[in-house]
Amino acid sequence: MQNEERKSLRQQIAEGKALKLQEYQEKFESKNTTYILDEKAVKFYNELKEKEQKNDKEIKQLMNKEMRRYQSMKESKDVKQRVVKKSIQVKKKQKITNKPEQSQTKSASKSVPSVVGDYSSDEDV
């Protein structure tokens, strides 16, 4: 019977390790109990999270609204620029079509006085 009650060194070491592991786990659990949240704390943190998500959503909506406003302003500016370019092109076309008539009348009126002026100056001499 003495051999049966006596434990081998291997068994003693295994029991010692198991006992130390159990003590460590109990100690570790007692340290982490402060981090366990009660229902009130969980509710509080959930409310904070919801508020943060709501604020993020509002900011995102505001950013989208401003982006659409900017894009519409940019498009209207592009339209205005196109209209201005078209009107400039139309004015240039009108000037081109009106130029030959004006240039012929101006050149004819200039040449007549110079000839008349030259002719009159010959008579005086």
Automatic annotation (TrEMBL):
Region: Disordered, residue numbers: 70-125
Biased segments, Polar residues type: 97-112
Superkingdom of the source species: Eukaryota
Compartment(s): Nucleus
UniProt feature, compositional bias: Basic and acidic residues: 70-81
Biased composition (Basic residues): 82-96
GO CC field: nucleus
Domain FAM192A/Fyv6 N-terminal, first and last residues per copy: 3-70
Alphabetical UniProt keywords: Nucleus
Pfam family, one: FAM192A_Fyv6_N
InterPro entries per the UniProt record, alphabetical: FAM192A/Fyv6_N
Protein's UniProt keywords contain Transmembrane: no
Nucleus among keywords: yes
Official protein name in the record: FAM192A/Fyv6 N-terminal domain-containing protein
Organism: Candida verbasci
